Amino acid sequence: MDCATIKKGTECAFMTSKGCSYNGGICHQVVEQCDGCNRGTQLSSGWYCSACPDPSLKWKNGNCNLATHVTVETNKAKAKINPLKASKRKSR
């Protein structure tokens, strides 16, 4: 349903016939950590996230799982290779 409170004219999952069903009845503006994210949309009343109604909750316990500008680095430890098995594989 289209939002009738802050994001007028945009599709909103929390909008019902009785009004906004989200906690507090309104969406909240993006926080500083959201700068650079592709999900932010600028409206007449400010910057809002198109995926989450309250971005501060997503950043509360670490990185936002919806952020497009954050990359997660994984530390893959190089596995120890048995030289005997490696030589047998190589001979095939």
Plain-language structure description:
This protein has helices at about 55-60, 85-90; strands at about 15, 20, 40-45, 45-50. The protein has about 90 residues and is an alpha+beta fold. The protein has one domain (about 15-90). The strands form 2 sheets. The chain has a two-stranded antiparallel sheet with strand order 1-2. The longest helix has 9 residues, at about 85-90. The radius of gyration is 23 Å and the shape is elongated. About 15% of the residues are buried.
Task: Give the helix/strand layout.
Layout: E1 15-16, E2 19-20, E3 40-43, E4 46-49, H1 55-58, H2 83-91
Antiparallel strand pairs: 1-2, 3-4
What's the short story on this structure?
By secondary structure, the chain is α+β, with helices and mostly antiparallel strands. It contains 2 helices and 4 strands.
The portion of residues forming beta strands comes to 5-15%
Cα distance, first to last residue? 62 Å
| SS-based class | alpha+beta
Helix percent band: 10-25%
Biggest beta sheet summary: 2 strands, antiparallel
Which residue ranges are poorly predicted, with pLDDT under 50 across at least 5 consecutive positions? none
Q: Estimate nothing, just give the exact number of structural domains.
A: 1
Rg, rounded, reads: 23 Å
Tally of individual helices: 2
Using the alpha-carbon principal axes, give the shape: elongated
Please give a handful of descriptors for the protein shown:
4 strands; single chain; 92 residues; 13% strand; alpha+beta; 14% helix; 2 helices
